[in-house]
UniProtKB/TrEMBL annotation:
Name of the molecule in the record: Uncharacterized protein
Lineage: Bacteria, Pseudomonadati, Bacteroidota, Flavobacteriia, Flavobacteriales
Gene source species: Maribacter cobaltidurans
Superkingdom: Bacteria
Protein keywords: Signal
InterPro entries from the UniProt entry: Cyt_c-552/4, Multihaem_cyt_sf, Multiheme_Cytochr_ET
Amino acid sequence: MKKKALYIIGLFLIGFIGIKLFQYTTGPTEEYSDLKVIAYHYNGQGYIGSATCMECHKDIYETHIKTAHYNTSVFTNIDNIKGSLKTGENVVSLQDADITITERDGKPFQHAQIKYGDKSTFDWGMDITIGSGLKGQSYLTDQSDGLFQLQASYFVPTDEWINSPNYTNRLNPLRPVNDMCLKCHVTFARSKDNASNKNQYDITKMVLGVDCEKCHGPAEKHVAFQRNSTGANGIDSSLVNLTSLSRQQSLDLCASCHSGLRNNQIRNPFTFLPGDTLSNFSKNYQSLRPSKTLDVHGNQYGLLISSKCFTASDQMDCITCHDPHKNQRNEQEYFNSKCLSCHKQGDMHCTLPSTKMGKNGSNCIQCHMPVIPSKNMQVQLKTLENATPIGIRTHLIAVYPDRSVDEIQVE
Ligand code: HEC
Ligand code: HEC
Ligand code: HEC
Ligand code: HEC
Ligand code: HEC
Ligand code: HEC
Ligand code: HEC
């Protein structure tokens, strides 16, 4: 009898320790840790990062971390560099120098060796990776005198290290990043010199990726409110409600990064918040250029608003076809169903005779939003003499007559 009691107590103990261990490894489930602010916006609001959103918006969080947006910038480490560091595969050979991409004690860096004269060498650490790695990755180095883009980039389609786009075939001086690159590839960065853009950043205070708070604004207050909220104590108005934006405000949020270079910068790009009017912050020098000459790279906004679908309907914006929380690359059926939501049978239907339609009749985007080689985004491959353009799907929705044939390849 005594033995049995001891046995039961033992079982209880084991169970109890097991539960404690389980709680220890999975983390606390009931009480939340204090909010850790990564950076403060100029308006005083804190950015806390998407890991915190997981508590209450688990579904959105889990699809969001698979998007190109979320992955478009990360702190570089040898595991997230897509290119090979193996000897023989890790060199970009220029006219006057070789750049080797290598690592020491687990820290990746680019090593340049001049081929002639004193054969001097330079080492630059790789600190921030720009690009989700769908097409490529470029790397930034954080030096005492500023943040710079490195000359060796990685190109995914051909799996090779390349000379970064727009660099000459010689060892170039390090290129200051300033807000360029950052304004479209990170959520928030603040120059150490508050007043202007001095190319000096504390990279530990950067909110990397195009994260939740890029589109929703800094969310410290929202989370503090929701965690303390036990029901009927007021309404949470700390975030801009994106569903209530006007069409232009909604477009402007996406256009802040998808309407070309906008190199006519009027105000600090990192002061822009959802709901703001973009033309008060920046303009394109070529904003009066006719639409057909706009480049497909990074200007989905300019192309879309030149399309008849856009001008002849009053509600179309980017969200009409894109779910901002999901990776929808190659979901052809989903996109085509969006076309058909307006182009049902009848006078809105495709006028191409079915005899000419070929086997891809239901794939509207293949013929009306074809993939077109970019004039601006070109890379110099080791194996090819000439610059090779990158193909990007145009957002000028139109009739492309040469697309009415059968042999169009399925991308
Ligand atoms: C403690 C729970 C909690 C956390 C953490 C949290 N939220 Fe929320 N959030 C809510 C609740 C509850 C609502 C619904 C509020 C309502 O509409 O009444 C909400 C609503 C929202 C909305 C819709 C607001 C609107 O008016 O349309 C957005 C956007 C949002 N949250 C973004 C975020 C982001 C981004 C994070 C992470 C930085 C986050 N939330 C973290 C609880 C939370
Ligand atoms: C005006 C916004 C903007 C600026 C500025 C910008 N980019 Fe981009 N970048 C984009 C967009 C948008 C894409 C997605 C492809 C497209 O639409 O053309 C992209 C794509 C990329 C990619 C390919 C990512 C992939 O794997 O698909 C890399 C690498 C990249 N950019 C690096 C840079 C670097 C380095 C700089 C600074 C010299 C820079 N970008 C400046 C908006 C920008
Ligand atoms: C690229 C911009 C973008 C990013 C990044 C983004 N959102 Fe949103 N979010 C939107 C837009 C736009 C809407 C409004 C959608 C609509 O009009 O249907 C929205 C709506 C919401 C809503 C309210 C409606 C709903 O679907 O429940 C919540 C909550 C939300 N987002 C949370 C988040 C969280 C959490 C993250 C990060 C894990 C995030 N969002 C990342 C653009 C974004
Ligand atoms: C802070 C700048 C920024 C904002 C704001 C932004 N994007 Fe992007 N977006 C990018 C960059 C950069 C890329 C390229 C990411 C990569 O591949 O590295 C991208 C990629 C995309 C892609 C391609 C995804 C894929 O799978 O390759 C889509 C679609 C897209 N954005 C739609 C939107 C929409 C819709 C909005 C507005 C709700 C928006 N973006 C707002 C910067 C931005
Ligand atoms: C919000 C509704 C809407 C959506 C979504 C939409 N369209 Fe349209 N589209 C229109 C309207 C309205 C017109 C103008 C019709 C007219 O002038 O008779 C149009 C015109 C067109 C034209 C003729 C263009 C020209 O220059 O003559 C084509 C082709 C077209 N759409 C294809 C598409 C495809 C492909 C998709 C999906 C990627 C799509 N549309 C999505 C509303 C829409
Ligand atoms: C009528 C539907 C439609 C609308 C509206 C629309 N898109 Fe797209 N978008 C698409 C389709 C279809 C693709 C191709 C998806 C794929 O290849 O998987 C795409 C692809 C993209 C890409 C990736 C391009 C590439 O080749 O790398 C970006 C970036 C993008 N859209 C941004 C935007 C932005 C920003 C807006 C608003 C200005 C917008 N889109 C409005 C249908 C649309
Ligand atoms: C194989 C290529 C191809 C496919 C697939 C295709 N179209 Fe077309 N579409 C064309 C061509 C070419 C024309 C011009 C035909 C003509 O001369 O009238 C056209 C015409 C149109 C028009 C009328 C344009 C005008 O001048 O008013 C619309 C709208 C349209 N297509 C929508 C769609 C939609 C929606 C889908 C998907 C269900 C689709 N198309 C699929 C090639 C295609």
